[in-house]
Structure formats: C-alpha cells, structure tokens
Amino acid sequence: MIGKKKFTFGIIGCGNIGNAIASGLIKYASIPPEKICANDTDKSKAKDFSKKFGIQLLDNTKLVKNSRFTIIAVKPKDIPELFQNISSSIDSDSILISVAAGVTIDSIKKMSGKNIPVIRFMPNICIGYGKGLVGYCSKGVSRKTMDDVLTIFSKTGFCFRVKESDMFFATAVAGSGPGFLFYLAEIIYDTLRKRGFSKKVAIKLLAYLFEGTGIMLEKSSESPLLLKEKVCSPGGTTLAGLSKMSERNFSEIINAALQAAEERAFELSEQKLKKRRYHE
C-alpha cells in the first residue's frame, strides 16, 4: 500500500482532531509512529505533537512528497493558503484525506490544480479512543485504495459512507455529536457534585451510563423508542423525568442543535469560502 513513499500518513494540523487521528492510528490501527509524519503552522503545537506520539516533523512540501496519504486537518479558512504551499508537491501517487468541515472534494481538487484521488472524512474526536465515527465519501479513489484506508480506520471506530451532499448533516451528528453528549454529561456531572458525589464517582457513573446505553443500542435489535420504553415503568421515576423533558421541548432543542450545526457546516462550504474571500 505504501509504495515508494516513506510514510503511510502525513498529518497537516496538530490540533484536537489531528491529535485524535494520530492517537487512533497508533493505538488502535497499529500504525507505527515512524510511519507517520506531521506539521503545523504553530511550531510549539507541532513540537508537543511530535513529543507526545514520537512522530517526525516535516515541512508541508516534504510531508506531501513523502506520504502515501496526506491528512488535511486544518481549519477550513486556512485551506486555500495551504494549497498554495503544497500544490507543487502533489504528484500522481498522492492521495488526500480532508477532514475540513464543509470543504468539498471538487473544491479541494480545484485548489490542488490536479485531478488527484480525494477522500473526504468526517471523524469525531472519539477516534482517538477507538470508538470514533467516520463518515466518508470519495472521488477518483480506487476500490483497492479505499479498502486499504477503511481497513485501517475501521479499527478506530465505525466508518460509514455517505453522499457528499449529506456530509453537512454527518458533520452535525458524527462530528458535533460528542460535544452535545458532553454537554448533557456536564449538566448531570454538576448536579452529582452539588449532591455530594466525589469527582471520581461522578465521572465513573457517567462513563458507565453512556457506555452501557451505547452497548444496548449496538447489541439490541430494538429501536431507541422500544429501549426507552423498557426503562419506563408506569407511574415510575423515568416517566416523571421524561415528562419534564417533553414539557420543555427537549426534542425541539436537540433538533435545533443539529440544524444549527448542519447550517454552520454549509456556511463553511466552498460557496461560502468563495464569498468570504470576495468581500475581504
């Protein structure tokens, strides 16, 4: 799979998602650190990244030239400038994997100036713990190459193909979802602490609560609705709590949050980036 390239993966961007990807690749996909290189415009951040994972740092041009897969993990607004820097280093053997929210495959191809294979990923931060979600779509990528990539990343979480037009919503659910669940966890955690539970017990309680519920969702053949009903006893505590959620339009709040995240992903798309550059 690697061919003549020295590194299997080159990661441009050493922020939170770059860290999560590196962690998942090394700890769960068993990619040796010496087969991964990285870079970031923030040299302090890049140095910490290298020290943390034992990964070699290269400048962007050398990284692209020497990596079988180049993972673009920078902010969408920084994509145009990045391609001005790396386009001349992209060759016929280069394969780009972009995790930049809202930046389309056609936009990436256009900015690269070359008709190269591009995979668009939407991983969430849980990929660093082997329990991530990775929505993906691609263009110009051979089945063999796609199988190779999915074989690796399926060890870091659940990979699912989506139409590119659905990537905005995949971003809202898979990419932003952990943040929404952490917010719910934060609320329950604060309540537990106010009631006198220790930090250790509160965290453990929440971890088992979320993990146990997730396992039931995965292993059971029943819908979330039926599983919810199994927890509810007539006139019981769960129904009392759910009735309050219903009174406060909890479902509308969740749907509004997903819609807002989806709309923001669209705002970061190719069309919006072009419009922003035009007015600047």
Can you describe this structure?
The protein has 280 residues and is α/β, with parallel strands linked by helices. It has two domains: 7-168, 3-Layer(aba) Sandwich (Rossmann fold), CATH 3.40.50; 177-266, ProC C-terminal domain-like (ProC C-terminal domain-like fold). It is built from 13 helices and eight strands. The chain has helices spanning 16-27, 43-53, 60-66, 79-86, 105-112, 143-153, 167-175, 177-194, 199-219, 224-231, 237-247, 250-267, 270-279, and strands at residues 7-12, 36-39, 56-57, 67-72, 95-98, 118-123, 132-139, 157-161. The protein has an eight-stranded mixed sheet with strand order 3-2-1-4-5-6-7-8, sandwiched between helices. Helix 7 (167-175) packs across helix 12. The radius of gyration is 21 Å and the shape is elongated. It starts with 6 loop residues before the first strand and ends with a helix.
Looking at this protein, list some descriptive labels:
280 residues; alpha/beta; ProC C-terminal domain-like fold; eight-stranded mixed beta sheet; 13 helices; disordered C terminus
